[in-house]
Write a structure and sequence with these properties.
about 260 residues, alpha/beta, Rossmann fold, four-stranded parallel β-sheet, 10 helices, globular
Length: about 260
């Protein structure tokens, strides 16, 4: 087998590539691909997820480029197909979809030493984490998951984040679905929606906006009856090896640990 030359334009999947033992084949990443830091230190950056430097990427001669429907632009994927033999398009929309993502990696790289075994291990970890969530009854909670401010922005119910929260009975608001792609997946709020008064929990994500303690009072004013907490956005929105850890993290949040 000719060794692959892999470019990952998806931060969480870059981490997955390394977790599968494919670090030596990684020839490009985005500036947002930061984990694991030491493994990626010498891997060239080719811009951001939305503004990929195609000229630089072409010069690195990748055989495989990994993109994502939410993270990357359609026109980027179309341009890549002009000079990349294999463009791998990913689109997990729920925690269980990570099993399909792992199988995608196995399909393309499973013949390389150790990759198939690592795929099995990650799939098993995820299945166990899902079973731990689904093995108990969770009280229903109305949740506002904030990813941005000025304006406040949240997540639609058909996003990966919302479906992660649903594993522990936390239902995101507003009651809206955003579709496969586009801005409707991350609705903006005016701040005077009547349903804000019925929210049980407000979760302030660490990404893409870096909420901190200084924002707690602002969020509390938005939903006076809710408990407000800062949460690790990477654990709740990143695919791959963080999915199982994220589900266990949610269980601890729900248990008040």
């Amino acid at each position: 087998m000719t060794p692959p030359r892999i470019a990952s334009l998806v931060p969480s999947i870059t981490e997955l590539v390394v977790a599968l033992g494919l670090e030596e084949f990684l020839v490009a990443r985005t500036g947002f691909c930061i984990h694991p830091a030491e493994a990626l230190r010498t891997v060239p950056k080719v811009g951001g997820t939305k503004d990929v430097n195609l000229t630089k990427l072409r010069g690195l001669a990748p055989t495989h480029v990994i993109v994502n429907v939410d993270e990357n632009r359609r026109e980027t994927a179309e341009a890549l197909r002009e000079f990349v033999p294999t463009v791998i398009v990913t689109h997990p929309q729920s925690p269980v979809d990570n099993l399909g993502l792992i199988e995608q990696m196995r399909e393309h790289f499973g013949a390389l030493p150790g990759v198939a075994q690592r795929c099995d291990e990650l799939a098993h970890e995820l299945q166990c984490a899902l079973a731990r969530c689904r093995g108990q009854a969770w009280p229903s909670q109305r949740v506002l998951y904030l990813i941005w401010r000025e304006p406040w922005m949240t997540v639609a119910r058909d996003t990966y984040i919302a479906r992660m929260l649903a594993e522990i009975g936390w239902q995101t608001w507003p009651d809206a679905e955003g579709g496969e792609t586009g801005a409707a997946r991350y609705p903006a709020l005016s701040g005077d929606e009547p349903w804000l008064a019925q929210i049980d929990r407000v979760l302030l994500s660490s990404e893409p906006y870096r909420f901190s303690e200084q924002h707690l009072d602002l969020a509390q004013a938005l939903c006076p009856q809710a408990s407000v907490a800062l949460v690790d956005g990477e654990l709740l929105s990143w695919y791959g090896p963080r999915a199982a850890v994220g589900l266990d993290y949610l269980r601890k949040l729900a248990d008040g640990a």
